[in-house]
Amino acid sequence: MSESVIGEDLTIIGNVKSKGNLKLDGKLQGDMYCASLIVSEKGRIDGGIVANNEVIVFGNVSGSIRSKRVMLHSTAHVEGDIYHQGIGIEMGTRYDGTLRWTEDPEAFTFAGDGKSDQQQPTTAETSETQQAAQSQQQAQQTQQAQSAQQQESGGRRLLRR
Predict the structure, then answer these.
(1) What is the pLDDT of residues 74-106, one digit of tens each?
(2) Engineered SS bond to 59: which of 19, 43, 148, 150, CB 3.0-4.6 Å?
(3) Which InterPro entries match (predicted)?
(4) Cα–Cα distance measured from residue 43 to residue 61, given in angstroms and rounded to the nearest whole number
(5) Does residue 121 contact residue 103 with C-beta atoms inside 8 Å?
(6) Alpha carbon 100 to its chain's center
(7) pTM reported for the whole predicted model
């Protein structure tokens, strides 16, 4: 399978899905779903990664990584949890997160390969959903408070008459 390259002069805002292998030399603000991924020294991802086979990181990742095999090289800077079946971390790697071994093969699949899309990386998309839910909850609380005030003031008027 051929490799697609996201060049260093390219910044993508949004999710990227590919059935093939990817190399990231540029920047991604969103989630990456692919068969295999190489994040070069110049590459940066602010979002989650789900790769069916392998993730190799030389650059920066801020978000969770889910892949059968993960290799963090000495130039890598990774912040986020890693779900894997095999991992290698070179001396000098900057890593802050939790390593979690998993035998669940569904943890590393996505809709691009015809399988389920159940994994939920920590991403901007997840944050937006949470923010929308919080906003809706705050609006409901405000409406309830206003309704209670109206009922209370309405009750007072009846007593004054």
Answers:
(1) 999 999 999 999 999 999 999 999 999 988 767
(2) 43
(3) BacA/B
(4) 8
(5) no
(6) 16
(7) 0.69
